[in-house]
Specification:
Blueprint lengths: L1 H30 L6 H22 L3 H22 L15 H19 L2 H8 L2
């Protein structure tokens, strides 16, 4: 029961992150306020849609969504560590209102928590039995 609550919480967070990002980007496009390059805009739209889709899949205990959430969370943590180490840099700003250091720190903490939580045996078993 406790695991189900945590799974649903993370699923809803993923859906909200994706939906808010999609609505914000689409709103800025409609209003003509977006100064982001089209490549960055496309990347943000695609990743926002993936985030919402993974959230829905996690709510349904879909094993593929489970694996993809862990995969993408691992990629995000690794990429943020490389950014902190100044091994890689982003050429296009994805967010202008929140300082990058804060955004990256929150992202590492959140995705590390996802990896920690979803790799627990009791949570893993929920996805293998459904």
């Amino acid at each position: 029961m406790k695991d189900d609550l945590g799974i649903r919480l993370f699923a809803f967070i993923e859906i909200i992150i994706g939906a808010v990002t999609l609505l914000t980007v689409l709103s800025s496009l409609i209003q003509g306020h977006s100064a982001k390059p089209w490549e960055v805009m496309l990347f943000v739209l695609v990743t926002a849609a993936i985030s919402s889709g993974l959230g829905v899949g996690i709510l349904k205990y879909n094993l593929t969504s489970y694996h993809l959430l862990l995969y993408f969370s691992s990629i995000i943590v690794l990429s943020k560590i490389l950014i902190f180490a100044k091994i890689i840099t982003l050429s296009g700003a994805l967010e202008t209102t929140v300082p990058a250091s804060i955004k990256n720190t929150v992202s590492v903490l959140y995705h590390s928590l996802i990896i920690f939580y979803f790799t627990r045996q009791s949570v893993r078993e929920k996805f293998k039995t459904n």
